[in-house]
Specification:
The protein has about 425 residues and is an alpha+beta fold. Helices cover about 35% and strands about 35% of the residues. The strands form 3 sheets. Strands 1, 14, 15, 16, 19 and 20 form a 6-stranded mixed sheet that branches. A 6-stranded antiparallel beta barrel has the order 2-9-12-11-10-13. It has a 4-stranded antiparallel sheet with strand order 6-5-3-8. It is rod-shaped and about 195 Å long.
Length: about 425
């Protein structure tokens, strides 16, 4: 049986615990659940790169030989020999074909004999004329003899001229039996085999000789681009201190750059060489021609190749360029995401230009001080805040990325070499022990 003092102590203890529980419950009820905003997403931004660029017009064209000559049989006869290897280079004047010359040699001999006879007849007529004229002056001969031998002499002179023409014609025909290269270049295959009769009814095509150096490239220019080129041509002439409206025969040197289907960029440089006199009304284009150096026994350019061409037309000093991965697109067109001074993302519609060293020229919609989002585009939303980290647009050019990639490879090589050295150490130690 508990004492009254013990019961009173327990009663006070439970009352104190109850009071503490009530206070704790009221304190817990006063605490409220408040929403804490997540930190803004991190993005990488960069100001557009400002640099001088050259605007180009781009075309497609085809290559044509600088010179190409068809070699045909100019006299009839049997093809006797072929003095070249198909596909090889030949020099101007090299002997290529021989047509049987015997018939033409005999014709030449006959013509020369006829010329000798005519010259002898002329000599005799001249002698008789001189004698008759002398006798007539001495009043020892008749005037009719003078007239007679004067006529005989003139007929003989005409006969000599006719005989000389026959000799020349026979010699020319004989020379045609040797078909030589009219220019230096690459000779095609023989189109007629030996022993065949050539040149009988028409000049038979024997082969072709093509000159590859330099090489022509033909392309077409539309009316809008033509006006740009004409304006550039006038500016270049004015830079020389000339008046393009008064000077005639003055042309500006306009450069062209060429690339083939398997080449990167435009490694071949040439010059604009020719332009047609009028625009084709059917196509609305003007045909132009460029000329390119093409040296060597195995030249890079051959006739008939498809080519890419570009022509510089204007230089701009402060063009704005951004990396292509920063450019987005939707139904409204192309755009960039920029970050303003309050770190809020803004969407800017743009008009793009050409590529320059891996960066895209922005023609409209961008300012030099704009901070363009170049990384973290998925986390950037127009109107939302971001945590921007600054970088340099120069580091995103194709040349800079290439240098960085090569530097990374160079750093990886010593590590690989050291690992190979470590792997070889146990073998070397084993050999020492043996």
């Amino acid at each position: 049986m508990k004492s009254p003092a013990g019961v009173s102590y327990l009663k006070k203890f439970f009352q104190s615990v109850a009071i503490l529980l009530i206070v704790w419950l009221f304190a817990a009820c006063d605490q409220r659940n408040e929403y804490a905003e997540p930190p803004p997403p991190k993005v990488t931004v960069a100001k557009p790169l400002q640099q001088a660029i050259i605007d180009y017009l781009e075309f497609t064209g085809t290559t044509h030989a600088f010179e190409e000559v068809e070699l045909r049989a100019r006299v009839a006869g049997f093809l006797q020999s072929m003095e070249f290897t198909p596909g090889n280079l030949v020099e101007k004047g090299d002997l290529l074909f021989v047509i049987d010359p015997r018939e033409y040699e005999s014709e030449l001999n006959a013509a020369e004999a006829e010329l000798g006879s005519a010259e002898a007849t002329l000599k005799r007529a001249q002698t008789e004329f001189d004698r008759a004229q002398k006798l007539f002056k001495q009043k020892a001969g008749a005037e009719t003899d003078v007239v007679k031998w004067r006529g005989e002499r003139d007929v003989a002179r005409a006969a000599v001229l006719r005989a000389k023409a026959k000799v020349e014609k026979a010699g020319l025909d004989l020379s045609y039996t040797k078909v030589t290269a009219p220019l230096s270049g690459r000779v095609s295959r023989n189109l007629v085999d030996l022993g065949n009769l050539v040149g009988e009814s028409e000049p038979t095509l024997l082969t072709t000789v093509t000159r590859y150096d330099p090489m022509y490239v033909y392309f077409n220019l539309n009316e809008r681009d033509l006006l740009k080129v004409m304006a550039m041509n006038r500016n270049e002439i004015e830079k020389k201190g000339l008046d393009p409206t008064k000077e005639t025969g003055v042309k500006a040197e306009i450069s062209l750059f060429l690339g083939l289907a398997n080449e990167e960029g435009y490694p071949h440089e040439g010059k604009l060489d020719f332009a047609e006199s009028s625009v084709d009304a059917g196509t609305g284009t003007l045909q132009l021609r460029g000329v390119f150096s093409n040296p060597g026994s195995s030249p890079v350019l051959i006739p008939g190749l498809f080519t890419r061409l570009r022509m510089p037309v204007e230089k701009r000093e402060n063009a704005l360029l951004v990396t292509e991965r920063a450019i987005g697109s939707d139904q409204s067109g192309r755009y960039l995401l920029t970050v303003n001074s309050e770190n809020v993302v803004e969407k800017k519609p743009i008009r793009m230009g050409r590529l320059e060293d891996g960066l895209r020229v922005i023609e409209e919609g961008l300012q030099p001080d704009d901070r363009v989002v170049v990384n973290g585009l998925q986390r950037a939303r127009p109107g939302a805040k971001v945590d921007p980290e600054q970088t340099d647009m120069k580091l995103l050019t194709a040349s800079a990325r290439k240098i960085a990639a090569e530097a990374g490879q160079d750093k990886a090589k010593p590590a690989a070499a050291s690992s190979e050295a470590d792997d070889s150490q146990p073998d070397q130690e084993a050999e020492k022990k043996e």
